[in-house]
UniProtKB/TrEMBL annotation:
Belongs to the EMP24/GP25L family. Pfam families: EMP24_GP25L. It comes from the Eukaryota. It comes from Vigna unguiculata. InterPro entries: Emp24-like, GOLD_dom. One of its GO terms (cellular component) is membrane. Its main location: membrane. The lineage of its organism: Eukaryota, Viridiplantae, Streptophyta, Embryophyta, Tracheophyta. The keyword Transmembrane applies. This is Phosphatidylinositol glycan.
Length: 171
């Protein structure tokens, strides 16, 4: 899960934000699947929230139109993912629970996300062990084949030398 807030920072605090200080925003996946989770045109601020359909990195792209003279904008972006994306203050308000229970819920979320990561790492470890075992087995067969070829060549050389020496009447 990912949650984000963005806003264009007003360079003149005492004055309203000019219309030229608007941005177009697109939030999506870096992969080529065209997964766009949020899109806004010509806004001063906004929010987005999504549950990613795929693992990996995601991006937020901010664009401004062509201005003459050129302007520089500062954008305040607060992007939270995973456990940090949950609004724990609302959870505490809704159920009227004390701070200790709220902290336990946060810890439970952290533990469950760590547990999921451990399960994924174990799956990757099993795949690597299987791959290593297959590689070791292939190398063992290759060693035996190499040893057989070397012994065969040595035997052929001995037989050839024996017949050669017998023809020359050395043996």
């Amino acid at each position: 899960m990912a949650v984000g807030n963005y806003s264009v920072v007003n360079p003149h605090v005492d004055q309203p934000l000019p219309d030229s200080h608007s941005v177009s925003v697109r939030v999506g996946s870096l992969r080529g699947n065209n997964n766009i989770y949020h899109q806004s045109e010509y806004v001063h601020s906004g929010q987005f929230a999504f549950v990613a359909r795929e693992n990996g990195d995601h991006m937020a792209c901010f664009r401004i139109g062509h201005h003459k003279p050129q302007i520089t904008l500062t954008i305040d972006l607060d992007w939270r993912t995973g456990v940090a994306a949950k609004d724990w203050s609302n959870v505490a308000k809704k159920s009227n629970i004390d701070g200790m229970v709220r902290q336990l819920q946060i810890l439970q979320e952290v533990v469950s996300s760590i547990h999921e990561e451990i399960i994924d790492l174990r799956k990757q470890e099993e795949e690597m062990e299987l791959h290593n075992w297959e590689t070791n087995t292939s190398m063992l067969w290759l060693c035996f084949l190499s040893l057989f070829v070397c012994m065969s060549v040595a035997g052929l050389q001995l037989r050839h030398l024996k017949t050669f020496f017998e023809k020359k009447k050395i043996l």
